[in-house]
């Protein structure tokens, strides 16, 4: 069963540890960061399912951390604020935080908010269509289009591509990619990631010898081009 990961960013270590222990009892994997910088690093490596974020943090502030997170992620954020921080609370909600709890809070209340927010997220249909130049990946419909035309992919190819577009800019090892598709297709275990990638490139790359979307990371595996830098190829490129 998939265990959800929660990242707590809170500089008051006693509070952080108490929240960690309490939420861990509910079956979550719970990690703690004690300042904003550390929180930002942990966010990148853990890819948590939810972030509990204290607004008053040393180094990088909670608001600034929320802003950074929202640039690349829709992960639910629950803010911890002091009663006096109403302006920050409002700013946090405008920044895209999903909920907040005012200190001092009861652990039961926070745990209930966590469950409620995660339930809400689970009930939403999976996000969106990911677009990169002429390439369109509809994750819900499991359809891929190039310049508007449907590209026929095998289920394994689609799963690989979906996993990559969900982690743009990140180097993905063959092992991680195998784990991402494991269980969905037995046949995939017999074939190598490389041959899947070759087929994928053939289907979506304008020039498979000069890949524009699926880039090779030497010695690691592959990565999907991050939107923006450098720009996705333009339509018809
Ligand atoms: Ca604090």
Model description:
With 237 residues, the chain is an alpha/beta fold. It has two domains: 5-122, Response regulator (Rossmann fold, 3-Layer(aba) Sandwich); 129-224, Winged helix-like DNA-binding domain superfamily/Winged helix DNA-binding domain (Arc Repressor Mutant, subunit A, Orthogonal Bundle). It is built from nine helices and twelve strands. The chain has helices at 13-25, 36-46, 62-72, 86-95, 107-123, 155-165, 174-181, 186-190, 193-204, and strands spanning 5-9, 29-33, 50-54, 77-82, 99-103, 129-132, 135-138, 143-146, 149-151, 172-173, 214-217, 221-224. It has a five-stranded parallel β-sheet, sandwiched between helices. A four-stranded antiparallel β-sheet has the order 6-7-8-9, covered by helices on one side. A three-stranded antiparallel β-sheet has the order 10-12-11. Helix 4 links the parallel strand 4 (77-82) and strand 5 (99-103). Helix 3 (62-72) runs parallel beside helix 4 and helix 6 (155-165) packs across helix 9 (193-204). The protein is elongated. It starts with a strand and ends in a 13-residue tail after the last strand. The mean pLDDT is 85. Calcium ion binds at residues 11-12, 54, 56-57.
